[in-house]
């Protein structure tokens, strides 16, 4: 019988199929071929634990219970890659304006890595990108918008005009537009669709809002008042995002506490918008309102999705 295993390696993420009677040695050989790495360690599970590739090479994949697992491939080679040509300098990591890259991570020696903030583009799809990336979805914004719209329209008793703030068909029509924000309603629906808890940490208050509490698996996002980012675990800060761990067992409370510590680090740098005194202006019709709730209502009523902050002197 064939079993599927997901790989996360520096050259990207992929899926491999192996016979359940194959040995660990067979798996290691296949991973070498897939990743083009000769020396590496393998980690899997939640929390990550080492897969011993030296003393257990004759063990069968079935006995190791690797069906459906995600294996993180961490290279052991220490030789740095050659520098890029002078005319093409490397681009810095995308981090919040005014914040140094090392301030968006928190070392976690006990787990052998770092909790990291993965900053999402400021394009009105940040929530969908943050969640979709944690779920390893291609084209996350369009995919999740379509799934949420279908869910709303097939659950009319649950998602009424009173809940949505507008007729369901109109709400979904706006939701499918790429410049429409997502929020609590969408997070709750995604939790049901993917049977996963979505823990959203508010930077200003460090409050954790759990969507889908009681599920077995959790992803973590960061909410800074008008923007969502993703929190992940990285074995090394030099590894690409494809090597991130973004799902954890909900019983692993230490992960959530570490994520809150990272959020506290961002709070001290004032990485949030205080929506209490947040005056917003619609760039389309010049409407002016206060707070994200009023902006969301205006967006649903008009379809306008271009807003700017007005600072009151």
UniProtKB/TrEMBL annotation:
Cellular component, GO, one term: cytosol
EC number: 3.4.19.12
Catalytic activity, reaction form: Thiol-dependent hydrolysis of ester, thioester, amide, peptide and isopeptide bonds formed by the C-terminal Gly of ubiquitin (a 76-residue protein attached to proteins as an intracellular targeting signal)
Name by which UniProt lists this protein: Ubiquitin thioesterase OTU
Primary enzyme class: hydrolase
Organism, as annotated: Apiosordaria backusii
Parts of the chain that traverse the membrane: none
Pfam families named in the record: OTU (PF02338), OTU1_UBXL (PF21403), zf-C2H2_OTU1_C (PF24560)
SUPFAM superfamilies xrefs: Cysteine proteinases (SSF54001)
A GO molecular function held by the record: cysteine-type deubiquitinase activity
Domain OTU: 115-234
UniProt entry keywords in alphabetical sequence: Cytoplasm, Hydrolase, Metal-binding, Protease, Thiol protease, Ubl conjugation pathway, Zinc, Zinc-finger
Coiled coil regions in record: none
Keyword Zinc-finger applies: yes
Localisation: Cytoplasm
Highest taxon above the source species: Eukaryota
Chief site of localization: cytoplasm
BP terms from Gene Ontology: endoplasmic reticulum unfolded protein response; ERAD pathway; protein deubiquitination
């Amino acid at each position: 019988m064939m079993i599927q295993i997901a790989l996360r390696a520096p050259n990207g993420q992929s899926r491999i199929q192996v016979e359940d009677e194959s040995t660990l040695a067979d798996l290691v050989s296949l991973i070498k071929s897939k990743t083009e790495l000769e020396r590496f360690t393998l980690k899997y599970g939640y929390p990550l634990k080492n897969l011993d590739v030296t003393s257990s090479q004759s063990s069968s994949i079935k006995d190791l219970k690797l069906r459906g697992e995600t294996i993180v491939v961490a290279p052991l080679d220490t030789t740095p890659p050659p520098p890029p040509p002078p005319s093409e300098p490397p681009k810095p990591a995308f981090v919040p304006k005014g914040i140094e890259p090392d301030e968006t991570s928190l070392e976690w020696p006990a787990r052998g890595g770092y909790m990291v903030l993965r900053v999402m583009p400021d394009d009105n799809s940040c929530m969908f990108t943050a969640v979709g990336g944690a779920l390893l979805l291609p084209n996350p914004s369009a995919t999740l918008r379509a799934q949420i719209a279908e869910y709303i329209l097939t659950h009319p008793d649950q998602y009424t005009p009173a809940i949505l703030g507008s007729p369901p068909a109109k709400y979904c029509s706006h939701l499918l537009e790429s410049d429409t924000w997502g929020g609590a309603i969408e997070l709750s629906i995604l939790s049901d669709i993917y049977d996963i808890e979505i823990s959203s940490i508010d930077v200003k208050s460090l409050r954790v809002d759990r969507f889908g509490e009681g599920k077995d698996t959790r992803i973590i996002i960061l909410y800074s008042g008008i923007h969502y980012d993703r929190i992940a675990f990285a074995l090394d800060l030099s590894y690409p995002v494809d090597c991130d761990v973004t799902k954890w067992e909900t019983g692993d409370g230490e992960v959530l506490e570490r994520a809150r510590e990272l959020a506290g680090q961002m709070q001290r740098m004032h990485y949030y918008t205080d929506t209490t005194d947040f005056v917003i202006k619609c760039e389309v019709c010049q409407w002016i309102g206060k707070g994200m709730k009023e902006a969301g209502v205006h967006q649903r009523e008009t379809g306008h999705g271009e807003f700017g902050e007005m600072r009151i002197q």
